[in-house]
Amino acid sequence: AGGAAAMEEAAAHNGTGPGAPAPARPPATPEGMALAYGSLVLMALLPIFFGALRSVSCAKSKNSSDMPETITSRDAARFPIVASCTLLGLYLFFKIFSQEYINLLLSMYFFVLGILALSHTISPMMNRFFPANFPNKQYQLLFTQGSGDSKEEIVNYEFDTKDLVCLALSSVVGVWYLLRKHWIANNLFGLAFSLNGVELLHLNNVSTGCILLGGLFIYDVFWVFGTNVMVTVAKSFEAPIKLVFPQDLLEKGLDADNFAMLGLGDIVIPGIFIALLLRFDISLKKNTHTYFYTSFVAYIFGLGLTIFIMHIFKHAQPALLYLVPACIGFPLLVALAKGEVTEMFSYESSAEILPHTPRLTHFPTVSGSPASLADSMQQKLSCPRRRRQQSPSAM
Questions:
Q1: Of residues 133 and 188, more confidently modeled
Q2: What is the pLDDT of residue 102?
Q3: With 50 as the cut, is the pLDDT of residue 280 above it?
């Protein structure tokens, strides 16, 4: 998940903010620009809000297929370096090889990822529309390696007939995107990627979030203002890794082609920090979501400032330049005012994942459902002497 997120963060931006119209096209009308920028802001807020809410239940889930990917401080420190190498590698790739073939491979790659992400996104909503007598059968996809006591689980995914229906509906959108590259299909995939990123990528604490956002703040500013690498890659890269909205929609309808854009990295990276603050709010058990709403308002302020500066200077802006200080600064000021800075920085999000079982550093040598895996772990906890005699193999 970290590699995919790095790729999205590195390549999604055209300056990581809403892009200005191409010089060869007629200037957008004030109404068209307002509609485009307002729609981008709304589309950015939706996956952050709902992804943060879903991250709370995801952290408490015992289903192995829904377990979040925890980002540690070491991961956060390496992330800007990995993103920079990915960005530079893509830049050299587009310079050496034909752009057509690269984008064809990338389209197929994101076609598969997009279908899975969209299916996972709409599944909870679609379950409400199925009749009570719907014939819903359970399935399990299980891949193991080895045999006997050395057997290790590689994939253990449970799904049902309803999930297959969602997968079929998502495939229709995928074929539409693959054939037409329509901006609506692009946005459906982009929203699904963003929501899944906010839901499934978890920062383990606030310090890690500050390291990640601070590193990408420097990364974003350098690659946008210091070189033309990011702009070149963004213009060459055809994939649903940015949200777009036409500024000439009022004149041309659904066939409009003068787009403003926002990279998914500008949604997911602040979004996982905002989701962390929501889980921190819940851990305080005060029945308030002060830090979540503060950071959410801070994100709106930072994104609005990005659009304002871009409109004034007529140049694409690195959105993290404005989003990072806002998303970190506003909640920190609230914590200072409430005297909760120590509690904020001592909060550990990863402790809430399977709170009565240890973090898995290896796959238990059992097969079956996630419930049987949890039972196996409980048995190991209840037999400490036996556990010391074992020598489980690390991943």
A1: 188
A2: 81
A3: yes
β 201-203/69-71 pair status: parallel
Q: Are strands 242-246 and 259-263 parallel, antiparallel or unpaired?
A: antiparallel
Annotated catalytic residue: which of 66, 75, 248, 266? Answer: 266
Distances (CA, A) of 124 to 134, 162, 249: 16, 10, 31
Write down the pLDDT at residue 25: 65
Using alpha carbons, select from 356, 393, 395, 353 the residue that is nearest to residue 377.
356
The residues facing 152 across adjacent strands are 145
C-alpha to C-alpha distance for 263 and 241, rounded to whole angstroms: 6
Residues ≥6 apart with Cβ < 8 Å to 317: 15, 16, 17, 224, 306, 309, 310
* Phi, psi at 159, each rounded to 5°: -150, 175
Residue 281 among the catalytic residues: no
Rounded Cα distance, 356 and 183, in Å: 45
Distance CA 326, CA 332 (A): 10
Q: Shortest CA distance to 349 belongs to which of 302, 282, 395?
A: 282
> Which DSSP string do the residues of 263-293 spell out, in sequence order?
ETHHHHHHHHHHHHHHHHHHHHTSS--HHHH
Give pLDDT tens digits for 79-129.
Answer: 999 999 999 998 898 888 877 888 888 888 999 999 999 999 998 888 888
Question: Active site includes 266?
Answer: yes
Closest CA relative to residue 32, chosen from 16, 45, 18, 47: 18
Please give the mean pLDDT across all residues of the chain: 80
Find, among 140, 127, 146, 267, the residue nearest to 196 by Cα: 267
Its pTM stands at 0.79
Catalytic residue among 66, 75, 163, 220: 220
